[in-house]
Amino acid sequence: MRLSKLLEGLDYEVINGDCNIDVNNINYDSRKIENGDVFVCIKGFASDGHKFVNSAIEKGAKVIVCEDDINVSKDITVIKFADTRKALAKLGAKYYDNPCEKLNIIGVTGTNGKTTTAFMIKDIFESIGEKVGLIGTIANYIGSEKLETERTTPESLELQGLFRKMVDKGVKYCIMEVSSHSLELDRVYGVDFKVGIFTNLTRDHLDFHKTFENYYKAKYKLFQRSETSIINIDDSYGVRITEDLKKENITNFKTYSMKSSGNIVAKNEILESMDIIFDVELNGEKEKIVLPIPGEYNMYNALGAIGACYTLGISLKDIKEGLKDVVVPGRCERAARKYNLPYEIIIDYAHSPDGLQKILETARDFTKGRLISVFGCGGDRDKVKRPQMGKIGTDLSDIAIITSDNPRSEDPESIIEDILNGIDKDNYIKITNRYDGILKAMEIAKDGDVIVIAGKGHETYQILNTGTIHFDEREVIEEILKKN
Prior knowledge:
By secondary structure, the protein is of the alpha/beta class.
């Protein structure tokens, strides 16, 4: 591709060299540079791409995109932008021929519920025969093709490449989990969303954002970039979003609620076994929804999904059909069902105080015996939530097993001590090894009990200070059952 074509319409300064040259690929990782590439210097947390300019040139880079001054030889073209993260997003979009323009992109943001809402939307569209793309925490999907992912939202360059693959394979609708990191770090800069959904906002990721206000402002960016927003106004921050949008004269949003008069309202909820049944009303229409994932918070997730799909032209009856068999890996997922156990085992991704509270309250509704929880807290993450989760886990469970959950570089014992500092009851068992913690829960479970294993959900690994090991809780449960 001609460099001048790639730069067309962008605000930049030529510091050195010639723009009338052909370039190969774009990259921001100097280790991946090949001959004829463009190297974009990105400032990260651990390193600064500007420090790797010479390495990139040695590997064959012909163009350097920077925001700081750099010294290079005369035969290297240097292009300076005010912000190279935003430049990477714009260059990536142009390099892949602006694939966003050919997709209906639905963005879902919030502390909890992003994955469940995204899978609900995916199932609704697939139920009417649409080929769908999904970008999120569990994996990326292009139709039935599953692509493993390292983060909720890819870097902008990879994101545009993924959009391109979707377009080439006939995808019309792409659902994205949009993390606060991706909004703050401009990974989704320049992406126009047909619909943006707000689920909720509770404490999380303050190790990155530092303050809750920064966290909110990062999330809010999605709704400034959405053609239509679908907002949960039963959450106080959802109300604030609507108020802030109005201040900017942005009025194309719809609200959903179970407590007040939103545009999309759920009423008359009934829990039958593990199904939740409720009436949904919007735009003068009414339909009875049967959702196979229990919990009031999943009704909220469904309302967000319903609002998005209805906005994009899906009938309420088709939405109902799409929701009746929805399955979300690692979100209130029933494990070991083929064994007909006298107790239930639920695997859930809940790893924040709010998430843990919601899954335990939900499980309590269908627990006939005792509620046994197994949970821990991640290492190298916000420490404030550790005692909070300890208190929630012991207050809402009959028995809580405190264990490890991705301790990373921290001492697992130290993390558990932080959790124990929030506990003022004696209904807990401390078992540092997560496998042994799950084993203990299954050993003590009796008829009618429910075990909730929280924190990892869809994940199939544990991150230790010695590295990452394979750890799939479904396999662990299966192995324990086979041994016994």
